[in-house]
Amino acid sequence: TLAFISAFFYRPLLSFIRNSTDAVLFQREYSREELLKELGKTVSESIDLTILIENIKDVLLQVMHMKFVAFVFFPEERIGLSKFEVESFGPFNKKYAFQSDNFLVSTLNQTSEVLVRDELKRRAEDIESPAKKNMETIVTEMDKIGAQVLVPLPASKGLVGMLALGEKGSGDAYTTTDIQTLETLMYQAGTAIENARLYNEVKSFSQKLQQEVKVATTDLVDKNKFLNTLRRLDQIIMNTLDLSSMCQKIVDTVSWEMGYAGGLIGLIDKKNNLIRAQALSDAPIFQKVKSLLPKDLRDLAISLNDEHHVLVQLLKDGEMKVVPRMAALFTPAISYDLAEKIQGLTKIKTNLVYALSAKGKELGIIIIGLTKDYAEVSERERELIQAFVEQAGIAVENATLYSELEQINKELNQANVHLKELDKMKDEFVSIASHELRTPMTAIKGYLWMLDSGKHKLKMGRRHAEYLERVKASTERLINLVNDMLDVSRIEGGRMQLNIKNGVAEHMISGVLAEIMPKALEKKIDLIFERPKSPLPKVRIDENRIREVLMNLLGNALKFTPENGKITVSARKQGKMVNISVVDTGKGIARNDIPKLFQKFGRLEHSFALISETSGTGLGLYITKSLVGLHGGKIWVKSTPGKGSTFTFSLRVVEE
């Protein structure tokens, strides 16, 4: 009977259920669409993270009636979130350990797709592939937290987290429409959560900043006076060099900038072993004080031999002292009665006495007068005064050093004038002496030649002939030295005159080589001129002086190149200069001796032996460098000990 009734009513009942379900589903879908619009509005308007989460949760529960909603937020260093955080509503498994390498988290990061447990389980049962194992693992992990759906929450820089949704209260499965709704929601929710987190970060930072600004503002108000005072003192240090002006500006700063009654500076007079008053504040009341003094301020002093005096004790121990009575400070420089009268006139209650020092050196003392008790001086004021005194010590030291430097410069200027006069006298003496020496030496050379050559030649033995040769060589050396000294005198006195003309470097070099070739043949040294491949441009030279330069360099090369050696002369154009080089295969020069080469009487290692062997004057390269410099060129050397040297000098090309 039951089977008959069921069979008879099945089709009408099924039709009724389908029609009723369609109507309900249509109405439910319509309601969901309206709620999503409302959720979109709420998401866009909610900037506080807590409110935003509440709104999203409320809408989801209202629409889909799941048993729980859980927000899992991923770590993000930018906002200080170092680990996973969970905000859940309902029976969510909070003990589940979320990690960055967790399979669920990795899968969501890779796919950014909504994961539905039942769908994944069904697909895993229908396929046989590597993906099957992944699906089964996801289902297993979702079962651990009791989630039916996992919704990623994408934002501008990846996922900010995910939504874990429990099963529906009715036990129904999540429909395609539900999933599509969640897919629409996840982008809005992810962006909104990111913005809300950034807002919370900015809000927190703003609150922290406001608190810090409040504290800093209070501190800045306290420090403003401090900084202005030190800035004023810095300006004094930078703009004042005179010691008296410096001290006066410092004590005026005590009155005008710091707002105290006044100040006094006393400096140590080492010569007379005194502490001598140097400057007193220029405030109106102290103008009257000055008129009461028995003598000029700077004539007031305390003896450093008075070991019991408070100022002398201060300089010994260096510790600040608080002195209520002026009489203890200024007697016996002034009378006790006058000190008391001045204290009553200025209404000073407390005198703060500091040692002025810099770099451990005692310079004097500074007294700061206050119209209040020391107990009323705040800690900030004490720091200000201490910093001010330290800066004042530096300022006084700088001014003292400047005054000493001025005195030294004055003495040096006087000494410099005297030295210039002596140098001028020396040059005149060298010039006169050289002229006077050259005349008789030339005559001696002539007579020696007559004895050794011509019709007056004497007949003499071998030993006498050797003596005569030595005399001739010594005479020639002395004449060369006199000529070199004359050249040095002209160069250093600015009297060297050049006859500059356009010249051909190749012709000049050929002429010098022809002149020096006999000496090279005598020493069995190859003397080679490497001519340039193409003619060189003309150069601006005094040919006689440049011949002297080249002759000097070749002469040195011949002296220091052994027999069967080689000397090569070359000329090359480089830029606007022609470089002439003399390369030898001689002994070479040690690197540390090269800077000495172009100095007057520069001595190299074993130079005395070399000079005695080669008859050098020690002035040749100095004169050579000077002559090249007068032509607007330069000279330099490269050398390797044991392999030889290369001397190069440059000459200016004639501009077309």
Automatic annotation (TrEMBL):
Signal peptide: none
Pfam families: GAF_2, HATPase_c, HisKA
A GO term for molecular function: histidine phosphotransfer kinase activity
A GO CC annotation given for this chain: plasma membrane
rRNA-binding is among the record's keywords: no
Membrane topology value: Multi-pass membrane protein
InterPro entries attached to this UniProt entry: GAF, GAF-like_dom_sf, HATPase_C_sf, HATPase_dom, His_kinase_dom, HisK_dim/P_dom, HisK_dim/P_sf, Sig_transdc_His_kin-like_C
EC number(s) recorded for this UniProt protein: 2.7.13.3
Catalysed reactions, semicolon-separated: ATP + protein L-histidine = ADP + protein N-phospho-L-histidine
Entry coiled-coil feature ranges: 398-428
Compartments where located: Cell membrane; Membrane raft
Keywords: ATP-binding, Cell membrane, Coiled coil, Kinase, Membrane, Nucleotide-binding, Phosphoprotein, Transferase, Two-component regulatory system
Protein name listed in UniProt: histidine kinase
Protein source organism: candidate division WWE3 bacterium CG06_land_8_20_14_3_00_42_16
